[in-house]
Amino acid sequence: MNEPLLIGNLARNPAENAMATFPNSEERQPTSAEGRDATPAAVHRAVAFIESNAETDISLADIANAARVAPRALRLAFARHHRTRAFGFLRSVRLDRAHFELLAAAGSGSTGPGAGAGTGRGTGDTTVASVAAHWGFATPAVFAASYHHTYGVSPDETLAA
């Protein structure tokens, strides 16, 4: 539970879920400035920032700042010009990084008698749970479901390959 991405996601998710679920002032119509700022270039800058910083605990404000727009304009830009939201894209990047970490661990022979006990950080005893936590997935089952949906196999199968 000492993984920075996991801690950040656990702290941020309740607030994001509440904003998405309950009526709030965020539901107002975008201003003309937000509409003008919601460009493909803003999405491109956000995507570049996310890809460069996926291993750190970043917020929507951090991504919007890097894209040089307000958070609301960033949400609008992703809605207009991308197939997912900013955090959906961040999650997919982290899932890809977790996939490559599992592939690397499988190639190094990291499964074996002590495989369930380690932290997964280059110690030769990588576990699916440790990789999931490292990349900010709070629940190994949710990670496994997302992983299987994306890659067609379970993370355990990848690690055992």
TrEMBL record:
Record domain HTH araC/xylS-type: where: 44-161
Q: Which InterPro entries match?
A: HTH_AraC (IPR018060), PchR_regulatory_protein (IPR053142)
Q: What span is annotated as the signal peptide, if there is one?
A: none
Task: Give this protein's Gene Ontology molecular function annotations.
Answer: DNA-binding transcription factor activity; sequence-specific DNA binding
Q: What is this protein called?
A: HTH araC/xylS-type domain-containing protein
Q: Which organism is it from?
A: Streptomyces bathyalis
